[in-house]
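Sat 14:20. Reprocessing the chain from the morning session after the first attempt stalled halfway. Input below, unchanged.
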Amino acid sequence: MPSKRNKAVTNALASLRNDILGGRFQPGERLTELALCDDLGISRTPLRQAFEQLISEGLLTRNESGGCLVSSFSIDDIIDAIEIRGVLEGTAVRLAAERGINESQKFKVDQTLSQIDGILSKDDFVLGDYVVLNSELHLQLNNLCRSQVLLTEIDRVNRLPAASPDAFLIEQLKLPNFGDSVKLAQGQHKEIWNAVLSREGARAEWLAREHARLARKNLEFVLNTKPSLAKKIPGLELITHKGA
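Finished this time. Tokens:
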């Protein structure tokens, strides 16, 4: 059972992360320890531990006096984060193909792919159901690498603004050809999986990197065509400049 302090850190971390990505704090804003301690009902020690975790995730930075500021990002930063996720997830499936998988792992991935097919076969499929299964599938594929170091890095990059596989799976976005896009993503899932089963590591890696780039296309659509929708994407309000 987690200790009181660990629970306080976990709760503070989740609350602060949601507040930062949700736009409660402005990019560059300094977080005031006393106010947050009162707000969260915790002491400074767990709050500072939560700060350290958010610094490691890239959502906070330290200023010269040691205070914590909300990070700001350029569009290039977000694109880089998506690319890095593709590299990491590509490495994960390449290792899975090279190291091999067991029947239990195969059954679970096959089952999730089949469930996604079932959802997408409906004309009025529920996006929330797809999001849950999409997250589960990515987690299953990543875990096949059997590398805790790699999984830790994947988890970290997924916490950056708009970098996770589900960042743009929001009903209100009304992305162009949304249904077709989701079905394309499922087709890519299957190609990646077939490459893993065939022990084609290089192919699986390339396909996973291409799959991640769907998020980049959606990012560019939102920013260039529907900038008012950026508020729907957690973390996009942290973009303060266009980059190079």
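Residues 75-99 form the longest helix (25 residues).
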